[in-house]
């Protein structure tokens, strides 16, 4: 079996070895299947494994041997990737971790997974998640909770907890997740991986089992910033199947460490730091000080109280959940509605209430107006600063079972990412070492809409600064 280096291997690292004929796709895939066999029991990361993976790897090896330039047209040729269980995949079950869909086989491929396949990627399998993406700990899954690879008594975060745990545990070199309000960045922070949330509409939602259609956003989870940029470049762009995608082509992100084109003004939102554990705040401030020494201007800023975002998100997300889950009536999609879990039932009931006659204006309409204020607040802030640097989560990974102690557990753990999600902004989580309990600390860079290039360039610089400390 191939030996991993200390921090595992990412996509670009494996690709370099494939190009140099130092390893085969079959060897890579066999290695990950062995890792999955060893670790999936205690971690519960994968719900479905691609049984055709080794056959597909052999075909990829044949294509590479016949054409030395094969990677020019298929940049992910022969490379395995894990996919969250809410992306429809032909030939692989898609359940959204819900018993309602336990026997569901999609008749079509999502745009995201089709683009991955077009690029030559091989789907390792489907990863666990909070059922219907309702949660922030991957404990509402009807197929059991996923555990954090750094400490199995802790959760990996959610709802993309299976995907982040797969990357953190070297059970995949990269994975695909989706974020509605933190479901990429929050578990990325708790598991210590890169998590890129693109601008809303930059990556197609077609073929994703919808939670909140005005918020859902697919994105990559990786070991390096360069790997995240690689996947983003393949996925971003307009899609005729999804009317909410941005119609203009997406500019390509650099795949090598590339510094910002100018010295930036970077904002530190004081409200975010006041809600964060001291050790995490100190880590983020340490990076800010290093960026200042490199010539960037660091500026304290003030954003709307993040608690406002909790109220707005709770109302709007529940409303869209009640609408999207109405289609699962047991006629077309398997099990009937008695198979919905407790969290889904809670969200359906609250969403139906805020949309009902007599309450629509009082709750839903007011929440939409407040969302506009959040969007405008970020817009006015970005007139003063180029990017925002902040903690990703208020705490590091919490213990399994913590979500049961609070009806608003998810919203409280996502409090530092909900505002930017409501505004449709791009952002990236970067892992910055471990706290005193040995748990990963995450920091995030947030940018204006469509400014993925800016945040990736700063992410490269921060990644370099972190590695220099190592």
Question: How would you sum up this structure, described in words?
Answer:
With 470 residues, the chain is an alpha/beta fold. The protein has a single domain, classed as Amidase signature (AS) domain (Amidase signature (AS) enzymes, Alpha-Beta Complex), CATH 3.90.1300. The chain is built from 16 helices and eleven strands. It has helices spanning 11-19, 25-43, 53-66, 70-73, 111-118, 161-168, 185-191, 225-235, 270-274, 278-293, 306-324, 342-355, 360-381, 409-413, 418-422, 452-469; strands at 46-49, 80-84, 122-127, 174-179, 194-197, 217-222, 265-269, 297-301, 387-391, 427-434, 440-446. Helix 2 packs antiparallel against helix 3. The two termini are 28 Å apart.
Ranges where pLDDT stays below 50 over 5 or more residues in a row are none
In total, the number of strands is: 11
Largest sheet: 11 strands, mixed
Give the rounded overall mean pLDDT: 96
What share of the residues lie within helices? Answer: 25-40%
Measured between the Cα atoms of the first and last residue, the distance is: 28 Å
